[in-house]
Specification:
With 295 residues, the chain is mostly helical. It is built from eight helices and no strands. Helix 4 packs antiparallel against helix 5, helix 4 runs parallel beside helix 7 and helix 5 runs antiparallel to helix 7. The termini are far apart.
């Protein structure tokens, strides 16, 4: 197995959303405001008007066309079915309204826990050094146990503190992967790169954790072993980019971006339906001004 392979299995499957086993929690719990991402305002805890009585979205096949692209990039990482089928044992908040608020509040804790489980699974697949692997595995086991708690136990959890502890390990795992077989690339953690022209910039092995790449031009850029944890790729142009060896890249990030048939993706991720089928045409690189030496 290569260092960037993504093995399939029941653990990974459990971290994929299964809307058929949920009660439409992602269509009820979050609030959203009328914007380019959502056609209407919706307060937290109120069902979206497009949510049908069977908990399915009435416009799912045309969310982008109906002004709801924000829905297409949301992922609960399997937290919805965990809350619905495990934490609440299949009890439907519509049939039992007294469970609604507690269920909604529990979902807001469960989702970040499942997101951490997804990242921990990815980190272990990177084959980190033995000591770090043990720490990651212990964190994964602990996080699984937390997801198995009762609603009361989950609501009492300081999920932010747990996330901070796990993120330290995930950052170390990313750094270890970026350093394996060569020097790590540029450190652009949290960089403000709104609309930046990054064509021709060397981002191989770069640390792009939390970078704001909204609308950035990444056409033809090589992102091998780049750490994309939490990078905001909304509207980013990935046509012809090579993300095949990038790390911690999630499907929802791709769904928020633009790409084409020549965009190379990691195994296990799929090309979003809204990406163009037209191949990339040659992209002229913007000349970089020569740096002047100090006087």
């Amino acid at each position: 197995m290569s260092e960037n392979s993504r093995p399939a299995g029941p653990e990974r499957d459990a971290l994929r959303a299964d809307c058929t086993r949920c009660f439409g929690l992602c269509c009820v719990v979050p609030a959203f405001a009328a914007s380019a991402d959502f056609a209407i305002d919706k307060p937290a805890g109120q069902p979206c008007p497009n949510l049908r009585p069977d908990h399915r979205c009435g416009i799912h096949a045309d969310l982008r066309g109906r002004g709801f692209p924000g829905c297409t990039v949301f992922d609960c990482f399997g937290a919805g079915q965990q809350v619905a089928q495990v934490t609440f044992g299949g009890r439907d908040w519509r049939a039992e309204p007294e469970t609604a608020q507690v269920m909604f509040d529990t979902f807001t804790v469960m989702r970040p826990l499942h997101e951490l489980l997804w990242y921990l699974t990815e980190a272990l697949a990177l084959r980190p050094p033995a000591g770090l692997r043990e720490e990651l595995d212990q964190a994964r086991v602990q996080t699984v146990r937390l997801t198995e708690g009762s609603p009361q136990e989950l609501l009492a959890l300081d999920v932010g503190a747990h996330r901070d502890r796990v993120n330290v390990l995930l950052s170390r795992a990313g750094d270890a992967a970026r350093s394996r077989g060569g020097r790590p690339g540029a450190d652009r953690r949290g960089a403000q790169l709104f609309g930046a022209d990054l064509r021709g910039v060397d981002l191989r092995r770069a640390n792009l954790r939390g970078a704001l790449l909204i609308g950035a031009d990444l056409r033809g850029v090589d992102l091998q072993l780049a750490d994309l944890t939490g990078a905001d790729l909304r509207g980013a142009d990935l046509r012809g980019a090579d993300l095949s060896g990038s790390i911690f890249l999630h499907q929802s990030q791709l769904n928020a971006a633009r790409g084409d048939v020549r965009t190379r993706l990691p195994a296990g991720l799929t090309r979003p339906a809204h990406w163009t089928a037209v191949p990339l045409t040659p992209v002229p690189r913007t000349p970089r001004p020569a740096r002047r030496g100090r006087r």
